[in-house]
Amino acid sequence: MRAPPARSSGHGGCSGYPAGVSGDSGDVTQLGTVGDEPTTPSRMKGAEPGSLVGRHVVLHELGAGGMGVVYAAYDPELDRKIALKLLLPGAGGETRRLRLLREAQALARLSHPNVVAIHDVGTIGEQVWLAMELVEGRTLGQWLQTPRRWPDVVEVLRAAGEGLAAAHGAGLLHRDFKPDNVMVGDDGRVRVMDFGLARASTDVSEHDCSPASQESSSTLSSRVTRVGALIGTPTYMAPEQIAGKDLAAAADQFAFCVTLWEALYGERPFHGDTSMELAASVLAGERRSPTRSRAAPGWLRRVCERGLSVDPAQRWPSMSALLDTLAKGRKRATLRKGLAAVGVLAVLGVGVEAQRRFDHARRTAACETTGHELDAAWSTERADALHDALVATGSSYASRTADQVVPLLARHAEAWQQARVEACLDADVRHRWDAATLDRSLWCLEERRMELESLVDELMLADAVVLQKAVGAAAGLASALACRDEQVLETLSPPPEEGREALRTVRADVVRAINLGRAGRFDKGLALARETLARAEALGWPPLVVRARLQVGTLLERSGAYREAEAALERAYFDASKGVAPEVVFHAATALVNVVGFKAVRPVEGRRWARLADVALEQVPDGEQLLRAALLGNLAGVHMAEGDYAEAKRLYEQVCEIREQALGPEHPDLAQSLVELASAHYTTSDYDEAKALFGRALEIREQTLGPEHPDLAQIINNVASTHYATGANDEAKVLWERAFAIREKALPPGHPDLAESLNNLAAIPFSTGDYERALPLYERSLAIWEASLGPEHPQVARTLDNLAVLHAKLHAYDEARRLNERALAIREKALGPEHPELAKSLERLADLHLKAGALEEAKALHERALAIRKKALGPEHPELARPLLGLAEVALLQQRPGDAVPLAEHGMALREQADVAVERLAEARFVLARALWDAPTTGGRDRARALALAEQARVVLRSGGKGTAAQLGKLEAWLATHPAE
To answer: Which domain range does residue 95 map to?
Structure first.
């Protein structure tokens, strides 16, 4: 799979910045021409007063724009004044004509009180005219020149929004909503007008990169915008409109929220003195803070902010949803204002019903305010400060990370506020909850609030390490919506009233330790967790003690102290099992699946912990499917560790399915699951499937994190490995170098990930026979592995094996054997005597014995490797070819060519049916050729076929370069002494 191409700023393959944007009157302002103003259109000759356009009598001019002139006119048949829009001949006349006809079709499909009505349309020669409702009144821009109260602004904009919603319901987009395209009539009715830029929402991209557009009989669906130009007014454009992408109703919603913000706060939300600066602010989501002198409430600002999201998917689901929220907010404000009056009526004895309504309204209003309890943890100011702090780390991917983290946290905050208000309503207004249930809910919500607040605090102090973990940390926060789940609440045990403040302080530190771990500060988090555990034990409230102990165990595992982690997690499990914290029982058992079954390579115990975790899950309804995914992922790792790859794949597939369904197709957790599944396919030589899965994971990570984030390096490295395994060395080299460059820039010099990259980079010069260049890369990799993981870690064995092969190529066989024997001993001790990883060391050690003439030793080693691979992979897996061919070589040297033939036949067949490097296939053909030549006449001899196979191998090896020179030399020598008979 080739490296992902750089994304262009255009859409659908069009590159570069849009050439221009349409101004208020349809003129083009070139982006990037700093300080330029829109060009004033030349004045066209229009209709004279008293002249006829169709049956309409022109009265006087109302205004002119880039597309034409608007007149007041009289319709004698209907006996009423109308507005007449006339497009006169001029530059681009046919384009303008189509655009005006499109406006007529768009408006003809609408009939709504908040949309200017169309009466008639016609042409005179090349001229097009449109007869519309004449609205006596002012534009919204003019109406706002007088200071207005925020409720009045909301009422007017909500009416205009109803017109937009009606257009969307008819399948149309406006694409140029702004104050000057909204009329506030003298009759009090608000109307949206100037749909000249409307487009059917089923239309394709604004940018057409194809050679020609398909003609259509429908003017409405015709493309009349030149390639590279944008339609709309820059000040009100959505980011996707600036970028030239496909548009949906969310683009009109963005323009609506810009207008609403401007109407509320007296200035637009995005700054920029030029079109270029403005576009940059919009695309980056860099909003101004609203003017504090304005009295608009906080909920109204949040409504606008959501509609101004850079990502259209993060805006309101529809204009109708946005308008419903405005209506509810307006109603709440009116309700609060009316409480005093209702109270007066109650006091005056108007009646029991008035008193009941007053009490209901008072309680509802009080609940609505509880959402503000989150303000200290999350606010616009905190969001802006966090964004700035992440960007200030200076990493190349910092801005992209900030753009991902802030919306993730904003969604958590919104969910918390919703849960808090609803909990209050359930208890105080709907009377569904008793005091004990509310207490549990509030204790849960308090913890979620502390989690959010402390994570923001940690991310504010971001450095390079924290920045790497920021997206995952934000995505990993538990949802506050569970704090309203009555099943969940039944499992919670709030502390006694006495001593709650001390417990709150300790619990806050437990939460902070959790977030330190999420942010990658494992050492600092572990120190705090241990201190907090001691304080929790002193207070003696069991649920807090086991939570603190769970966090100690979790951070010990992340720090690599697996034995200590196992002890802490096991104690947390058993203490929590006494009925004090069901969720800790599950999380501790799930963590032990990984620590014991995978890290300590004790798979039987790991599977036992998985069964215990599965039982505990029944008591933890909060996010059951996602929790099950975590358990299944850890269990799959256990099966990978013991070489049961088929079961590991099955479990990883379940994890991917659960996470994609629950989190969506672009969530970071799904990307990690795809990597794990791909690794399982790679291990079993299913390289095509591995490439596809790695590629999808890489696409998700790049979209989420940007192209230079350290987390991308692992996936890039894995994609490169699949190329290398199939002989695509050039592609592998490019990707391995990219992964190493990312890691070298982001990680300290002794980080284990650098060892992995160095080990892989050495494979390229090794494959070309440049052993002198490969040797220092392997040695540097080995030194890092040993220093970071210890001299007996299985990762060390990988580089030892590679060094052994290299020394064998340099004819240093004693050193090669020493390295191989050390690698085998490490793997046997860490993984057991039958793990598939042992096969690599056994095969390489067998080759060395073969060269030394120790044929029986070589045979025993290859037979052991063959048995291990067959048990792990099945009898027809391509990886069995290596020991089969090794055994064939032994048989040839022992003068048993008849025995070598079936072994070599099987080995070659396995490689032919697999996607292996051609050099490996050539090797198999040469072994079989020698066996077929020397076999007895009654035992499979076929010398003609032997020569054909040898010739096929020679063709491949001649194109292999220096890396296949030695193998080619042996083949050439054999052919020279084995002529055709």
So the answer is: 52-134
